[in-house]
Amino acid sequence: MIGVAVVGYGYWGPNLVRNLSEAAGTELIAVCDLNLDRLAAVRGRYPSVAVTDDYEAILRDPRIAAIAIATPVSTHFRLAMSALMAGKHVFLEKPIAPSSEEAERLIEEAERRGLVLAVDHTFVHTSAVRKMRELVEGGLGEIYYYDSVRVNLGLFQHDVSVIWDLAVHDLSIMDYVLPARPVAVSAMGMSHFPGEPENIAYLNLHFDSKLIAHVHVNWLAPVKVRRTLIGGSRKMVVYDDLEPSEKIKVYDKGITLKGEFQANGEAVRQALIGYRSGDMWAPHLDIAEALATELKEFVGCIETGGTPVADGHAGLRVVRILEAASASLCQRGRVVELEPARRVA
Amino acid sequence: MIGVAVVGYGYWGPNLVRNLSEAAGTELIAVCDLNLDRLAAVRGRYPSVAVTDDYEAILRDPRIAAIAIATPVSTHFRLAMSALMAGKHVFLEKPIAPSSEEAERLIEEAERRGLVLAVDHTFVHTSAVRKMRELVEGGLGEIYYYDSVRVNLGLFQHDVSVIWDLAVHDLSIMDYVLPARPVAVSAMGMSHFPGEPENIAYLNLHFDSKLIAHVHVNWLAPVKVRRTLIGGSRKMVVYDDLEPSEKIKVYDKGITLKGEFQANGEAVRQALIGYRSGDMWAPHLDIAEALATELKEFVGCIETGGTPVADGHAGLRVVRILEAASASLCQRGRVVELEPARRVA
Amino acid sequence: MIGVAVVGYGYWGPNLVRNLSEAAGTELIAVCDLNLDRLAAVRGRYPSVAVTDDYEAILRDPRIAAIAIATPVSTHFRLAMSALMAGKHVFLEKPIAPSSEEAERLIEEAERRGLVLAVDHTFVHTSAVRKMRELVEGGLGEIYYYDSVRVNLGLFQHDVSVIWDLAVHDLSIMDYVLPARPVAVSAMGMSHFPGEPENIAYLNLHFDSKLIAHVHVNWLAPVKVRRTLIGGSRKMVVYDDLEPSEKIKVYDKGITLKGEFQANGEAVRQALIGYRSGDMWAPHLDIAEALATELKEFVGCIETGGTPVADGHAGLRVVRILEAASASLCQRGRVVELEPARRVA
Amino acid sequence: MIGVAVVGYGYWGPNLVRNLSEAAGTELIAVCDLNLDRLAAVRGRYPSVAVTDDYEAILRDPRIAAIAIATPVSTHFRLAMSALMAGKHVFLEKPIAPSSEEAERLIEEAERRGLVLAVDHTFVHTSAVRKMRELVEGGLGEIYYYDSVRVNLGLFQHDVSVIWDLAVHDLSIMDYVLPARPVAVSAMGMSHFPGEPENIAYLNLHFDSKLIAHVHVNWLAPVKVRRTLIGGSRKMVVYDDLEPSEKIKVYDKGITLKGEFQANGEAVRQALIGYRSGDMWAPHLDIAEALATELKEFVGCIETGGTPVADGHAGLRVVRILEAASASLCQRGRVVELEPARRVA
Question: For the GFO/IDH/MocA-like oxidoreductase domain, which residue ranges apply (chains A, B, C, D) (predicted)?
Answer without folding.
Answer: 130-236
